[in-house]
Amino acid sequence: MKTFVLAENNRIEGFKATLPRKTKVVGWEAFAQSAVQTNDDSLWVTEGLETLTRAFDTLDESFYKQQNELRKHVKLCLIADAPIEIRRWLEALFKDAIIISQESSLPFEQLLEVLNGKNPERYIIGGQVDKMTHTVTLVRGDLNSIVVPLSTFRPSGDGVKPDFSNFSIDDYGQTLKFGEYEASSDAVFYEFDPLYRRTRKAELAKKEKGFGASLRRLRLQKGLRQTDFSEIDAREIGRIERGEVKPRKATIEKIASTLNVDSTEITSY
Amino acid sequence: MPYSLDLSDGLKKAGWKVKIREKERAEPPHVSVMKKQETWRWGLREQAFLDKKPPVRTVPKELVEHLQTHLETLIAEWDSKYPHNPVNSEGEK
Lengths: 269, 93
Known about the structure:
A: 269 residues, alpha/beta, 3 domains, 5-stranded parallel sheet, B: alpha+beta, globular
């Protein structure tokens, strides 16, 4: 997918000097023509409402008569605090319209590196904390989203607690920051995205791949002790984790029940 | 706040960071070695990289030696953040 940056005309040259080579910078006057005439899928990225508004100020009826082309091929990523009316209008016009507030998006140059890089789905480009649902919705570099409960960000052993009113993203989309509390996006995806988990598990060193290693990873991620399995002796859990014994199906079911996962999912951890 | 290992000016200028954040994959204990979009997990028990990707050869030898030199500090920092899974707890009995 080709990536374009929609920029103020007087900022085009400045952008060209700093952005990844694959990214094309286009001024707002050329937006309509470029967007509609690009046959392949394209992603348009822009920062701030002003640039977008100016681009749309130049549009006439002929542009709107070609909106089917936009909906087929063109995605938009807007970094701005956009009112609901603008959001609806963009969502109606584009194949995908992702709107991320400036406070909770990656710095613009890092964002473009992620969008143009390998495996963009492994990185977070923006997000929003919702205190009503106690979740954070994270936008990944492939523009898909994942919803994560805030309860997963438990205080660390040294007492650092997340400040959910102070959310940002750093390290090229690999770190979520809640004030002074930092969480690795890898840990979050590993816990909440089974497909990501399977892919990363395939990349593990060989000795980390058995059932016991999976059980230990999952148990510790959930903050449980070997003694927390009421129906199974802690020594038995230890033997399973060390790969000394192979658990029976009934034992696996009991383990899964304590861990609150499906028994078939344990080995994906 | 996360623990960040102090690196030489050369490594810092090249964009390298070593962190233990408040939420990492809990097992096995590790530090995250980062440069731009890449992260390598270096295991504190194994004293080796845990994943096959990204390629380990990209990480400067100087940085790996620095990790070895500061191993005790790194273990103490991990144990402080993850007391339910300290580095010396492998294979609880």
